[in-house]
Amino acid sequence: MNDDKIKKYFLGKLNQAENSTFEEEFALDETLFEQAQMVESELIEQFLRRNLSASELDAFEKNYLITEERRKKVALAQNFLDVFKTEKTSEKQGFRQALAAYFQFSKALAMGGLAVLLFGIGFIFWLNSNTEKDFAELKTTNSDDSKITENRNEMEISNQNSTNETPQTSPSPNENINIKPSPTPAPKTDVSPKTQEQSKPVFATFTLLPGSLRSNGEQSIRLNPDTITVNLKLSLPEDSPKYQTYNATIKTADGETIATFQNLKSPNFNLPADKLSAQTYIIFLEGKTNENPAESISEYTFRVNRQKK
Amino acid sequence: MTKNSKQPTESLQNLLNLLGTDSLEAANAYNRLRSSLVRFFILKGDGEAEEATDETLDRVLQKISDETKIADLQKYCFGVARFIFLERIKRSKKETEAVKEFYENDLLEKNAEENDSFSFLRECFNELPKAERQFLQRYFADIPYSELDKQRLEITVEQGISLNSLRLKIFRLRKRLNECLKNKLE
Fold this sequence. Notes:
The complex is a heterodimer. Chain A is an alpha/beta fold. Helices cover about 45% and strands about 20% of the residues of chain A. Chain A is built from 6 helices and 9 strands. Chain A has helices at about 5-10, 15-30, 30-50, 55-65, 70-130, 130-165; strands at about 190, 205-210, 220-225, 230-235, 245-250, 255-265, 270, 280-290, 295-305. Chain A has a 6-stranded mixed β-sheet with strand order 1-3-9-8-5-6, with no helix packed on it. In chain A, strands 2-4-7 form a 3-stranded mixed β-sheet, with no helix packed on it. In chain A, a hairpin with a 6-residue loop joins β8 and β9 (about 295-305). Chain B is elongated. In chain B, α2 runs parallel beside α4. The longest helix of chain B is centred in the C-terminal third of the chain and has 23 residues, at about 165-185.
């Protein structure tokens, strides 16, 4: 069966007779049914990657997104694609962490080696301290010792470098924004989601880092006028314990509450883009465990910039 | 045979008689019919495909007990299923309203569930063998679609498989991830 026809079915572009025949044929045949599901998931991916033509997008909204289940599928597919955005970075981090661990191990190995060597030197010295020949041997060994010490210093430097390379601030920074708080004032960062390149973006996903970053350069997000839904993912501070649920409150800098989210299972949520105007916002994040009441985790300050049409 | 069915046994027997001459053949035909109806509702995007199928079969049994003449049972069942689907969709929100809500307030209410999905999906992804993770990452790389198409073609060449086989492989991997997610959400 032609994939194009399947796509037309999901976009509601088949006539009634074709539609009925299609449904019966595909429901009766397991292989065709699997093909239809495959094309359906690809269609959703095209929608999320903004790769549908204007008429297809229109048809998708009018004829595909008509049931709760299908809307859930789209939301799930968005999460699925987001996993790859974040996993790409964590794989890199994993490599860096492995590198750091390697140097940590090498350092321990060198330190251990040095200890064994020093013990050996002492032992040899104790055995042969009376002979000049043996003393000469000891001098040779001592020069080896200094070489090892030099090597150890090199390893320490390597280790430091690899640690410095490891992102400290975000466990899963999203490529779309990639804002890092820095101990030195950072230039103002203004990040746009990929959506702005496209004609009709729908979702815009941002990862926010904890802290009030005004002094370090404010983190900001840029919204395209066509953006309808904003997905905000809050990176937890590195030392944050694990909570069962999270509460988030978004306020303007003047203290006006824009939205509150209770009992989130993870610190990310969606917000209609029209709730955000061009100003500074602060998100207050709290965490709760079954045993303890809500406690403050961090604040996230960010500025919204709106792109003009 | 249907959940919560209140139909008299007689009409069920009549349905089975329409499906096959001996009881085993009829039972198999019934199961095939039921599975087809479930797939029909999944295609339609009904989140409770099993429930909708039960509703359809109950309605068909009702018609049989009313002694309605049914020439082609399979076609008749799909016809009833279409009708049931329309009823179910009307019972939920009006379509245009629902789409609007999908973009707006509705999303706020669903946040908890979606957030769970994201975290669990990541867990499921990380539970996959490394080769499969890398394979998925490459297939769904966050790059422009035109480049992605090229990259996917490269994968087919490297793996010596057709594009259709690659798509199916990916689809089945995603299905596994979805099943893992479903288990974690339960």
